[in-house]
Write a structure and sequence with these properties.
This protein is an all-beta fold. The chain is 0% helix and 48% strand. It contains no helices and eleven strands. Strands 2, 4, 5, 6, 9, 10 and 11 form a seven-stranded mixed β-sheet that branches. Strands 1-3-8-7 form a four-stranded antiparallel β-sheet, with no helix packed on it. A hairpin with a 7-residue loop joins strand 5 (46-51) and strand 6 (59-60). 36% of the residues are buried. The model has no long low-confidence stretch (mean pLDDT 95).
Length: 126
């Protein structure tokens, strides 16, 4: 079983920044990509960003491109999401997820991720 624990959420004004972190533990075997998704109240969960096992070829949703940066830790079981220029529409519960994949692959929104965390709340208030 794999456990994912997110942290770093909070309340920020528009234009502010936050850094989310996620640590994976448990039965982690082989290569796996890590990703962030989010779900706002009344909306479906949506893809935010993903990064490969090797840490390269990150993938981003158009809505966050240029504002968010996903980074894989050298330890491989940690990933962060640096969020800048936050907007009220970024308000959501942010989830970390993993998916078994090739070392240079960062599966996007079309893929089904295997393991999920409980989420961390990000609220951008005006």
């Amino acid at each position: 079983q794999v456990q994912l624990v997110e942290s770093g959420g909070g309340l920020v004004p528009p234009g502010g920044s936050l850094r989310l972190s996620c640590t994976a533990s448990g039965r982690l075997i082989g290569w796996y990509a890590m990703a962030w998704f989010r779900q706002a109240p009344g909306k479906e969960r949506e893809f935010v960003a993903s990064v490969s096992w090797s840490g390269d070829f990150p993938k981003y949703a158009d809505s966050v491109k240029g504002r968010f940066t996903i980074v894989r830790d050298q330890a491989k079981n940690k990933v962060s999401l640096q969020m800048t220029s936050l907007k009220p529409e970024d308000t959501a519960l942010y989830y970390c997820a993993t998916k078994a994949s090739a070392p240079h692959s960062a599966p996007g929104p079309e893929s089904t991720y295997d393991n999920w965390g409980q989420g961390t709340q990000v609220t951008v208030f005006s």
